[in-house]
Amino acid sequence: xxxxxxxxxxxxxxxxxxxxxxxxxxxxxxxxxxxxxxxxxxxxxxxxxxxxxxxxxxxxxxxxxxxxxxxxxxxxxxxxxxxxxxxxxxxxxxxxxxxxxxxxxxxxxxxxxxxxxxxxxxxxxxxxxxxxxxxxxxxxxxxxxxxxxxxxxxxxxxxxxxxxxxxxxxxxxxxxxxxxxxxxxxxxxxxxxxxxxxxxxxxxxxxxxxxxxxxxxxxxxxxxxxxxxxxxxxxxxxxxxxxxxxxxxxxxxxxxxxxxxxxxxxxxxxxxxxxxxxxxxxxxxxxxxxxxxxxxxxxxxxxxxxxxxxxxxxxxxxxxxxxxxxxxxxxxxxxxxxxxxxxxxxxxxxxxxxxxxxxxxxxxxxxxxxxxxxxxxxxxxxxxxxxxxxxxxxxxxxxxxxxxxxxxxxxxxxxxxxxxxxxxxxxxxxxxxxxxxxxxxxxxxxxxxxxxxxxxxxxxxxxxxxxxxxxxxxxxxxxxxxxxxxxxxxxxxxxxxxxxxxxxxxxxxxxxxxxxxxxxxxxxxxxxxxxxxxxxxxxxxxxxxxxxxxxxxxxxxxxxxxxxxxxxxxxxxxxxxxxxxxxxxxxxxxxxxxxxxxxxxxxxxxxxxxxxx
Length: 613
Hints:
single chain; alpha+beta; 5-stranded antiparallel sheet; 17 helices; 41% helix; elongated
């Protein structure tokens, strides 16, 4: 029986002892050996203190037990009669108090946190604090226990804090850290430290409420916020300065344009008089002139006409930039108008033995301003003659392509490097010398040409290589163009983008879709064109210099006359959530460049202009 009893006790997962009537240990199981660190033989004969004589199982409660290594642990002790081991023998079972260990471990864990934890009673008195309060606030935890929480509140808000605390006690709720309040805690030395505080209501068994406040030092974050606020204020001030400067630049440009227009008119009048009198003198109306006098008179006449051409260029550019260039559009035969230009430039070409020809079928009509069309073709042909060596050829060709008339002017001159293809259209820009080895003119011809082409809803570009000649191509609306819904002239869509390739690609897509694309390379030009042309819709890029897409959109919506014009955003950039919200509130649709974006663009335009297709 004794061996069976020992075997049963060894199966217990907790320490168990057989104790005789005098309270001395007769046997200790393997659980006791493992917990206490003594062998069963070492336990034998030792007294187990505090054991009563019992007639049935009795719980003795929590008792502190000592291990061989000197450490102690709390345990629940139960004693029962053990008749199988003899009269008065008792069985003692020891269950370790794990709750106490957990509490100890919890305290160790909480005290290891970098955030301070303060427990505050319903009366506002601090009940406990973790070790992290010392580096944060300068107090030892024991110094805070029993103190009112207002001890840690800046002096100027202590009274209001009491009211807030009392109101909070009436409706305690969880308040997450970083909830938008800018808080400071008062340290022991009186200084303030920026903090975030998380409030956690804790209800006890009696129905009372304590508050566990987690306090975090946010000095670094506060400093970053202050730097950001300072930066934002500085940025706001600089933006205001930039806007003022831009307004001043716009004013200066307007004054410059007005001055150029005024001066051009003032200069043209005496020049016309000079030209008229030289022609009269050359005709001998007022008497015959000798050969030397005639030669001088021809020089005056030639240079006066050249000066008039330069003044006319300045006047045209000023009118275009001011948005005051009026186009008188009508249908006319392209070949007839083009022949007039070819005949006019042929005399200039003959001085260099350059052959100028035209290849345009009869019956090809165009819808444009006839005078401005001739000016466009004149500029391109004279430019080609200027850069073509003696004995060369210059050819103008015209044909119909996808609802537009395409005109090409090509030469076998000195050519243009690829990096200068865009620069040739910039005003006052000349990228190379003529065949004479010098630069001629003002550099306005091609700039004006591009503006005139785009004002008609067309586009212009150049293809060239050094030594291989140049090929300038421009498009204009064909006569009788029909809109996608079959109700007359094709609807005009304004494409605004500073990137030439992107602008021309979008224009090609819109043209194929049955629309008339008008192009603008920046926001200011676009606003002027909108007021003049009133397009059916806009296709707008976001990333542009001077005035980006957002600024342009705001300017458009602020104008009561223009605000109703539909806007389609065409972009390839990744947008933040805030940017998307702004665009959705102000634009009709957003088309992202990617898979099938061309179809999406046309679909967005159709919806914007209410096409039935």
